Amino acid sequence: DTSSDETTTTTTIAAEGDETTVPIEGSTTTTTTPSGSTQDPATITVAVLNATETGGWAGENAGILASAGYITVDGNFGGENADTSTIYATPEAQADAQAVANLLNLSGAPVTQKPDEPLAADGGDAEAQVVVVLGADSVTGTSTETTTTTTG
Prior knowledge:
- By secondary structure, the chain is an alpha/beta fold.
- The protein is built from 2 helices and 7 strands.
- The chain has helices spanning 57-67, 94-103; strands at residues 10-15, 18-23, 45-50, 71-76, 86-89, 111-113, 130-134.
């Protein structure tokens, strides 16, 4: 049984703080896209943060992810309420972030690099590989209806 693994060889040239990666002649380069392989959900912690006026929204979405096998924490976003949802992920969890987005019907939400500082009001997302910040766009078009009646 013979199998071959594709190997990428690169040379890093550093000069005055600049770092450039140059492929070696004859080598192949493969890049992992967000549609790449995901890790076992049981090894991924996802923090779901509510940046909307809808109470319990983070917990409801965290429940969807927990039923899919993810380790979840939920809480409130530490900044202003957001109009649009954003998903943050560590470099190793980019594909997982896309899988989480699809589960939450947020496939249009941008997936970006997770910052070093926690995003949750209580810092509860510090250890999470994926952080979902639920904006107002995550509430519209869902089965949860919010009706406000003003009488006056």
